[in-house]
Amino acid sequence: PPPGSALQNPPPGHPPPPRRCPMSRRIHRFVKPAIFYEVYGDSRALDLFALPHNAVRRLLSDLYDFLHAARLLGSALVPPDLTRLTSWWNIFRAFLFALFELEEMVLFPWITAVDPVSVDGFTATQRLEMKNQIVAGVLAVDKARTESLIRGDPLKLIDFVVAMSTHVDAFVPSLLTYFNYEERHLPPIIIRHYTDRDIEKLERRQLEYIKKSSQYTDPKETFALLSLWMTDEHRRTWAESTMKGLVGPAPGSRTAAVYLKWYFDTELRLERLMGDLMAKSGTVLKPPPPVPCLKAERGAGGRPAGGMWWRASGG
């Protein structure tokens, strides 16, 4: 405003006009989206997607809580906070990319062998376009972090957090939409062409692929993160029924014990990365609400034979 104007010198009793901030410091409205788990155990065909998707949903929920905590701290952020934030982000990114690779190398070749995956408009081209958009958003976060490191200004830490929040907000809706597309459109194709026994074999093939693949992350960590959204009791039940032969030479009776060691090592690593920042900000993680997970003993058509198997809490 011009010198001496009412905008520069407001009349007595009137508050001064708000001060403008540089664009990089303006507040980006950051609201955690509604994130809900998919039911697991109701259909083998749906389980192929629900298990990894629910793990990513839990990580996304934690990511929003983590970024919210960092934004609350604002100028009180210190470089170690950003180091831990980006270390956590690297775990998330590696896990997501490992699952994307699993889809393209194992799941989709298996489906497209009997169907071109064109039901209800979900074509292979559309799938890859959606996935490329998600990957571009993830890489935008990496680019923002690199630029922040190059500048090396500790006073700009909050700028990186705001930039990261903006990029996360840009790709997460696409990622959740992509999950919903897969969960709605692909299980009917699988049920139409494959038996429960066929699907069980594919489940095993996916897990064996994870065990052999280390391009993005340690297979033990990938296995551990798959059950991040389960309760301890239900995680043990899942490990006993799913991980046999995948945890090394351990006998069947020790399968769950070996797997849980992997899980708690990974969980401890995540807590060490997130705990200090959450404590300093006075915030806590708020995972998605629980969903019913039905008994693994299914009847015809992939439906459960009856009775509850376990209930996931995400906490």
Task: Provide structural commentary.
It is a single chain. By secondary structure, the chain is an all-alpha fold. The chain is 61% helix and 3% strand. It has eight helices and two strands. It has helices at 44-73, 79-112, 124-151, 157-193, 196-212, 219-226, 232-242, 255-281; strands at 291-294, 308-312. Strands 1-2 form a two-stranded antiparallel sheet. Helix 2 runs antiparallel to helix 3, helix 5 (196-212) packs across helix 6 (219-226) and helix 6 (219-226) crosses helix 8. The model is unreliable at 1-11, 15-26 and 295-315 (pLDDT under 50).
What are the defining features of this structure?
315 residues; mainly alpha; two-stranded antiparallel ribbon; 8 helices; 2 strands; globular; disordered C terminus
Strand and helix layout:
Elements lengths: L43 H30 L5 H34 L11 H28 L5 H37 L2 H17 L6 H8 L5 H11 L12 H27 L9 E4 L13 E5 L3
Antiparallel strand pairs: 1-2
Helix pairs in contact: 1-2, 1-4, 1-8, 2-3, 2-5, 2-8, 3-4, 5-6, 6-8, 7-8
What is the residue-averaged pLDDT? 80
By DSSP (H or I, 4+ residues per run), the number of helices equals 8
Principal-axes shape call = globular
Write down the secondary-structure element order.
Answer: HHHHHHHHEE
The description of the largest β-sheet is:
2 strands, antiparallel
Computed Rg: 23 Å
Structural class: mainly alpha
| Fraction of residues in β-strands | under 5%
Question: Level of helix content?
Answer: 55-70%
